[in-house]
Amino acid sequence: MRQVGALFGSTLPFPARKVKALLGALLLFPLGNFAEAQEPKFGGTLIVATTNDTPDLDIQKYTSSSQHNALLPIFDGLVEKDWTADADFPPIVPGLATSWSASADGKTYTFKLREGVKFHDGTPFNAEAANFNFQRMTNKEHPYYDQQAGSAALGVLKGLKGSMVVDEYTFQIELSEPNAGLIEALASLPNYYIMSPAAFEKYGKDAIGQNAVGTGPFKLVEWVRGQRTVMARNDDYWGKKPYVDQMVYRPIIEPAARAAALKAGEVQIAWDLPVDQVESFKSDTKYNVYLRGIPATKVIECWQASGPFSDKRVRKAVNMAIDRDTLANVILKGTAVPATQIYGIGSASYDPSLPVFEKYDPEAATALLAETSFPDGFNFFIITSPENEPVAGALQAYEFVQANLAEIGVNMEIRVRDNAVFGEVYMKAKADDECVTFDRGYDTDFILDMGYTGSGCVPNGMNDQCYKNDEVDALLQKAYTAANIEEWRKLHQQAQKLIIDDSGTIPLVHGLRPMAALTSVKNWLPAKAWLQYPGNAWLEN
């Protein structure tokens, strides 16, 4: 969300709860840039080196932060997170809806919409436009229904049934069952941001992905896949207008290349620095460097329907063989902290009381493995796509884990694939010896529902390792009918503890996401989130 002041006078039935920061490691370097009492300046072009490209510009189709970050400045949601807030958990604030409320049975949400807002093509935003978008996501008979957009919407929001227009500026979302987490999901996931109905009619179903038309603070100027997304300030924006004339996102996949572009002055902001260059950037007065906790946990997830990882003792032994402290502090040079859980720092259900996921004990791991059908170890492989992992140092991390596991006789092969191949692998049933790696988490707590619900085993859902636990399923189901968001989160925390006891996944570290900017960039503080919005920044001459 870009307009912090829009919060006042709004109805927030489920206010966001801050989460305690993790240890003293979560530091911001430095604060001076953000706190300067300088007069902001208008003008200039802000160029940002991002980590990945977007296949097209249809914001409703994707669940990856790399795609959403590239499109966030162009679109608005009904409700949003304040991605500019200096908060452990970015608060929920109004967007295209000024207020919202839930019915007594929790199945109908009513939104009062902001009046006088126009899309970039000059057409009005109203309840008809909101309904068009939600029907496009949920109604297979809609002329512009897209299966990928529909799967993304329904894969995260269980029970999303439909929507309707009440009057010109009143819109309702209907659910088949209560969902206390609905507002958080709508605020966190740009899948539900609003696109221009007129643009669909003008460009057609197949070409809408090349023509992004929203209501956001920036308008699309040019998109060249793999090279740049160019946006210009929307001078008719309904909220706080950006200071810069233009913003350019340059996808630079290799971390070292992003760092080089920043050093050369080709970009002014670089996301996700290589771990071995963070200290040199911090010691150079030309840059401001930030280590901000994000709700992301680097995980290895292995097929559990059959094979070695179907045995809880095998999973536990593998977890016990990993030295997470050395991984975080030595291999990743303090750009991460040892994983204590599945939820990452900044997630609402992150539990600061939990210890490290498993105590490092290779001798005990060897003894436990000896009780299984694999006393002498076994072989498996991981499919990894580091460009899709914002937690720094992916390959270094996996090579270190590979060495750890070799000590107990378990041989892990690392197979690097591009992002498209990884996506296909993730969404299919796997071989007994097949695992995927990625950064699990997002700016919403639906990660357990997506990844650990037994009925959601791929390809029928997003449970990529086919993890099943009836007690976990019961807790997640109960959470949907929770009386309020606090109860919803407590139930998710209980479910997570059961998954931890099961060694239901292999978490490695929670990322702090090193980022840097030239000191000429003012008024930018990276969010403790996957999604980043630098559009409030201004440039010093």
TrEMBL record:
Signal sequence range: 1-37
Family annotation (InterPro entries): Peptide/Ni-bd, SBP_5, SBP_5_CS, SBP_5_dom
PROSITE patterns named in the record: SBP_BACTERIAL_5
Coiled-coil stretches: none
Transport keyword on record: yes
Intracellular or extracellular location(s): Periplasm
Pfam families: SBP_bac_5
Keywords (A to Z) from UniProt: Signal, Transport
Domain Solute-binding protein family: 92-425
Similarity remark: Belongs to the bacterial solute-binding protein 5 family.
Listed name of the protein: Glutathione ABC transporter substrate-binding protein
Organism: Mesorhizobium escarrei
